[in-house]
Amino acid sequence: MPKNISLTRYLVEQQRIDGHIPPELRLLIEVVARACKGISQAVNKGALGDVMGTAGSENVQGEIQKKLDIIANEVLIEANEWGGHLAAMASEEMDSIYVVPNRYPQGEYLLMFDPLDGSSNIDVNVSIGTIFSVLKKAEGNHGVEESDFLQAGSSQVAAGYCVYGPQTTLVLTVGDGVAMFTLDREQGSFLLIEENVKIPDNTQEFAINMSNMRHWDEPVKRYIDECLQGKEGPRGKDFNMRWIASMVADVHRILCRGGVFLYPWDKREPEKAGKLRLMYEANPMSWLIEQAGGAATNGKQRILDLQPTKLHERVSVILGSKNEVERVTAYHSGL
Ligand code: P6P
């Protein structure tokens, strides 16, 4: 692969090749990437900057907000509101949508994000990340409301994440495969490190929070139990387990070497479909996984087919290597 292909050059060439990325969408992606560079700087400061610990407030999910959650949210809002490419934004950290103020031109795109996913890991220096998803507002709609965001994940026009780990790496799809870019801090640019990322259909590595085992439904208990039986059991092979408690980091590992990630419904809060959020966690991650040849379901349906009814809707998530996701899904159908 040629060296030194910047994100900008990649997007311009993609736009030139197949017109897949209209200029406004290219601008949006570049602005989000620039915001992620700023978030990466703040994350990297750690205890040396006033960015650690809690902000003393709760988000719409009822979770304690970390200072960096709020910083990351503000960076994304300020970076994107003036460009003229967006009509509105939605964030895990904000109860309702953020409509672009009248002092700026409004565009046709809708941007959703989890500004800092995995924030329980911030204070212990473990990888965290920003997840984003882009939709288009329906043609002709004047103004913008929450209902404009309630589109199935299959309607996304761009999706990705930026993982703040040993490297700061941006992972992106616009529907033509998955590309990865690592931040070169000397140049201040994201440089292409991988395109056409592919996940193996099979794996021997699963990611789940095992402490919740007693709360799982029977199909998930059966799947994990068979993995734990190893080569003496029905799977005929040993499995490894990973759980970083940062979806961005777990999904990045799966995109790099395969695996299956499960955050299933459980009995702790039976009225909730799951812990993870559909619009700005499950949908973007599911599109990336499918674009890399994997699969993503809620145990019963393809995640990207789900029709959202609420902005902060939760969902059960099983995603990764295709054959493993299909097996877990089959178990949910009693097969
Ligand atoms: P648990 C982080 O808070 C998150 O939303 C995902 O990034 C992660 O996969 C999951 O929750 C971790 O949840 O219950 O294991 O702490």
Describe what you observe in this structure.
The chain has 335 residues and is an alpha+beta fold. The chain has 2 domains: 7-195, Fructose-1,6-Bisphosphatase, Chain A, domain 1 (2-Layer Sandwich), CATH 3.30.540; 205-332, D-Maltodextrin-Binding Protein, domain 2, CATH 3.40.190. 30% of the residues lie in helices and 24% in strands. It contains 8 helices and 17 strands. It has helices at residues 7-18, 23-45, 67-80, 146-149, 218-229, 247-257, 278-291, 322-332; strands at residues 54-58, 64-66, 86-91, 98-99, 109-117, 128-136, 158-164, 168-173, 178-184, 189-195, 205-207, 240-241, 260-263, 276-277, 295-297, 314-315, 317-320. An 8-stranded mixed β-sheet has the order 4-3-5-6-7-8-9-10, with helices on both faces. Strands 12-11-13-17-15 form a 5-stranded mixed β-sheet, sandwiched between helices. A two-stranded antiparallel ribbon has the order 1-2. Helix 2 (23-45) packs antiparallel against helix 3 and helix 5 packs across helix 8. The longest helix is centred in the first third of the chain and has 23 residues, at 23-45. It is globular. The chain binds 6-O-phosphono-alpha-D-fructofuranose. Residues 117-118, 120, 209, 245-247, 263, 275-276 line the site of 6-O-phosphono-alpha-D-fructofuranose. The site of 6-O-phosphono-alpha-D-fructofuranose (P6P) has 10 residues, from loops.
Number of domains: 2
Low-confidence parts: none
CATH topology term of the largest domain: Fructose-1,6-Bisphosphatase, Chain A, domain 1
CATH class of the largest domain: Alpha Beta
Q: Could you give a short account of the major beta sheet?
A: 8 strands, mixed
- Order of strands across the biggest sheet? 4-3-5-6-7-8-9-10
CATH-derived architecture of the largest domain: 2-Layer Sandwich
Helical residue percent band: 25-40%
Specify the overall morphology.
Answer: globular
